[in-house]
Amino acid sequence: MSKSAPAPPQKAALKQDPAPRSSVFSSLNKDVPAGLVVFLVALPLCLGISLASGAPLMAGLITGVVGGVLVSWLSGSQLSVSGPAAGLTAIIVMAIQTLGSFEAVLAATVIAGVLQIIMGVVRAGIIGLYFPTSVIRGMLAAIGLILILKQIPHLLGVDTDYFEDMSFLQFDGQNTFTALAGALQSFGWGSALIGLVSLGVLLLWENVLAKRVAVLRMIPAALIVVVLSIAMSALLDVALPTLRVRPEHLVQLPNISSWADFTGVFTSPKWEAFMLPATYTVAFTLAIVASLESLLSVEAVDKLDPQKRATPTNRELMAQGTGNIIAGLLGGLPMTAVIVRSSANINAGGQTRMSAFVHGLLLLTSLLFLDSILNRIPLSALAAVLLVVGYKLTKPALYRTQWKLGWQQFLPFIITIVAILLTDLLKGVTIGLVVGVFYILKTHYESAYFLRESPELQQAGVYHLKLSEHVSFLNKASIVRMLEQFSPGSRVILDGSESEMIDYDVLEAIENFRQSAADRGLELELRGIPQVEVMGH
């Protein structure tokens, strides 16, 4: 058998470094506007996740800055954005209760970062390659639906829950559908007006104006919306005070007016916590969940990337681990690669890691200088941006494509969507993965062998059972079941002459059948199948 040809050098280089370093600076005209859009989306998310986690308000911003400024360069992904993740909020809340303080959780975050680096060194990132495409597409579609459902209340100026609450059961006691129903019954007219106008401007800008006027493509639609929303909010304050946007529906960035305010932002870990066993339990949980979320996110980003670049998963784990160590030492929340901000980056036209870096620099700048301006941005305008991102993730064409691929692809896809909508990201993906694995097992079960009843010896009942090229333990059940169905007097030819690999479990089952064949009145001929020693014989 001839050996397969080695991969072309260009492809090998592509997997190791998806984009040459020189190209990072060649797309600034697209990366800078995209970074601005990601910044506008990330700012309220960082603050909201801090509030939901029970952490200091600035903790989320610190992590956003570290994720943008540092991890963007350490990661092998060109388009992924790292920062505080909604999926970790429940873990952080419980960790603060368990360890007694947020400072102790910072110690656990540092340890979690070290564990992630170790996972990358031992090449544990390969687990990210085992998620079926149907499950990843289901995850993206579910996130798109969640963004739409969760941001409608913010668009209408009703929901005061934090901005990126991605779980079905919210921290304010409601769930996704009750919050949506409440928003449709009673909403803030000022926020709703700004939100709907912002949504209309986004759609008009992207689908009509930018296509007709080339120069407009260089201006992010989200920036236009933000400027317009600030102006509309100011106009309502003066002209129609009854419609003014309430403070809880504006971006709320803390004011830093002195060096003391700036240094007060940072919190050191509680060093005594490094001696507590409970700290390591929390750290292990954070490391596993954060690593899974990051691997899922970069896998999804690679599928959304128009250039189809591949992210080195082990490098990603080490990058996230380094980011968590730095964030923990500075007083930040644990981080992951986050799909919502990464999707916004791709939709805004980001080309390289420079867009994520720009978003990090803007977060740092906003922390120091821009609080008075940014605190005037209505959340309804940012919700409009996320609604458009959500729609692009869950377009009807995606569902049609998955349906045409058949039940084996469609069922894991749709079950993943429903499970994520009714639980959370990790639980939903796990359920979808179980369904996907079921179909993988079913495929292996059905492809273990080819059975042919010899036509020239049909009266004699001769059966030729030819094994597949690769026979693993997953094929054992189907082979054993087939062997049990032959009636006495049959002649069975079990042929493994073209099999390159037969798992020991299958060989053991065949040996058991060989030893019992005579007692069952069967004549058995083995071809190319080695005999193995069976326990008890």
Automatic annotation (TrEMBL):
Full protein name: Sulfate permease, MFS superfamily
Keywords of the record: Membrane, Transmembrane, Transmembrane helix
GO cellular component: membrane
Region (Disordered): 1-21
Membrane topology type: Multi-pass membrane protein
InterPro entries: SLC26A/SulP_dom (IPR011547), SLC26A/SulP_fam (IPR001902), STAS_dom (IPR002645), STAS_dom_sf (IPR036513)
The keyword Membrane belongs to this UniProt entry's keyword annotation: yes
Main location: membrane
Bias-annotated ranges (Low complexity): 10-20
